[in-house]
Write the structure tokens for this entry.
Amino acid sequence: MTAKLQLNSDGKIKHFLSIEGFSRAILTEILDAAESYSEMATISSKKVPLLRGKTISNLFFENSTRTRTTFELAATRLSADVLNINISTSATSKGESLLDTIRNLEAMHIDMFVVRHALSGAAQFIAENCAPNISVINAGDGRHAHPTQAMLDMFTIRQHKKKFAGLVVAIVGDILHSRVARSQIQALNILGVNEVRVIAPKTLLPVNVEKLGVVPYQDMQQGLEGVDVVMMLRLQRERMNSALLPSENEYFKCFGLTQEKLKFARPDAIVMHPGPINRGIEIESSVADGEQSVILQQVSNGVAIRMAIMALAMQSGG
Amino acid sequence: MSRVLIKNGRVIDPATKLDAIGPVYIEDGKVVAVIQERADFKADEEIDAQDCVVSPGFVDLSVRLREPGYTRKGTIESETRAAVAGGVTSLCLPPDTHPVIDTPAVVEYVKDKAEMAAGAHVFPLAAMTQRLAGKQLSSMFTLKQAGCVAVSNADAFIDDLQVLRRAMEYADSHGLLMIFHPNESSLSLGGCAHEGVVASQYGLPGIPGAAETVAVAQCLELAELTGCRVHFSRLSCRGSVIKIQEAVKYGAKVTADVAMHQLLLTEEQMRPFDSSFHVLPPFRSEQDKEMLVQGLIDGTIHAVCSDHQPQDVDAKLGAFQETEPGISALETLLPLMLKFCEENDVSMTSGLAAITYQPADILGLNKGRLVAGADADICIFNAQYPWQINAQNWLSSGQNTPFWGDQMTGRVMRTLVQGRTVFELT
């Protein structure tokens, strides 16, 4: 369903809402395109005229500085005009519906929406209900998907490990509430890694998680044994105030990534985190800033990946 | 008054296990004879039911009419007309209208409007607690006198078990049945889909099956403690059926129903984020569905309701989680029941039993039967009739159904209420 919605009649990307349903070939095409944009970022003239005259609207119903900034930068480097709209503080708080907001922006002849929303499925809803010439990129919807984040993670893994076959990847932390984890799991499986593990207490794992194509672990040592990639997730502070976890201390003790625990992974394992980091809660500073950490590369790769996805989506006749 | 003859039809009366081709004679709104020819009968109106089934009109235990209070979603007139178009001639209206059915004035209003609409019979349910707030008992006796047939807290929670206990004791004091929708709020709040594979995959906040089974278990205990007769409304879980089965074995006075769509759809069939599948209780797993089917077949579940909940367009427009739950279901009750019977190798008579005399018996209504002396509430349907659900042939104000646009088999051709034709397919 989602897959059908995301591709146009020629099988090209029209919307980018979820990793689900994309083929390995399409994901690889995105990674390859990102590679050329990534090389471009190191030269002095960083702009290409690919999307000149196009208007891209960043529709953020939920705050996010980092994701919005990289999308903005990506659009600017493709020479598009960017309209940032922070809706958490405007229309919908006045009772305007999601659809009305979209209709108003359509009337301003926007070519692409980059959407972040607190509810799962919001990006798909917009894609299904907006004018047919508009492309929608999901910048995170509820607990459902954050596909551009997952793609930049895949890009970073490929930079370091060259190929996906044979890799063992562990995702650690709040899988239950994480759109990042859901998209990562799908991307890793489509790209053909050997095994995806999730490490978390049961309170932070969705039911039937193994059906998503992962092996669940409750013990960090066992879960990290022999892994090539450790992907940490951000733990939202508000989870501490519910019945999900007893305390930050205990969480760190069990699931925080320390130098000591990292030793269970392969010696050449890389450590990733989508940011922003809670130092001393899910990850120790010496690991976050350490030799195996590729966290800042993820941030730089975010721009290249988003350029690649936006360019591909707009070329499909958007 | 008028004398009506329905001839050439296949007459099915599940209560008497009658299934034969022959006439039905109606006089002054009552059935006077079934199958036996009456040569002396002079009909004012003859209805040819060739190729059709003549069945008792359907009795539906859960139908939201949306009036008073939510008339943008539906009215007593629009929804009782949809009811008879679906063959439903008697329906129960849960008390979660606005204002709530907790005063005789609201009962009177509903009855008057229903009478004017001249569609299906409407049987209002009384709120168990004032304003459904779960705190103070409603004037159940007064509401019974005004015409309520049972008490219920609809989908509103009674969090305090002591209040629930007292309400059950008080209801039983006045011989009132409690219709209970089992749902433990602390386990279900915030959820919008079955806590299972599909919700996990799409990141939808889940409602575990235990939210229902825990409430069933508590209520069964209170039924034993208080002696109150309980009817469980709209079960969705395997565990609920097992618990009720067990309780009945040890003599519990409880009955149960299931919504028609729960016998056909599971979480796996939901189109991702399609709000027409947003329903409470949610579509559950294949194992849950199988147990509900088995429960209906073995008699643990006595009735199938439509769980009709019409919605306006806006209520269903949005991200799945923020849309309102519910399916407009009166007009698909019959074709879905026929489909269910076919899929599960259930006889048409057994299928019809669950939407005619069995629900009527739960409420103690003299409905759902085709015998001499019964009210002539009759549904004449063609079980093979193909049709497509679309705006041209849909009467409910709510077009919110996951079956919208689908091809259906089986259609109500004519519906009579007390001998008078209230719906005829044109």
Summary: The first helix of chain A runs from residue 2 to 6.
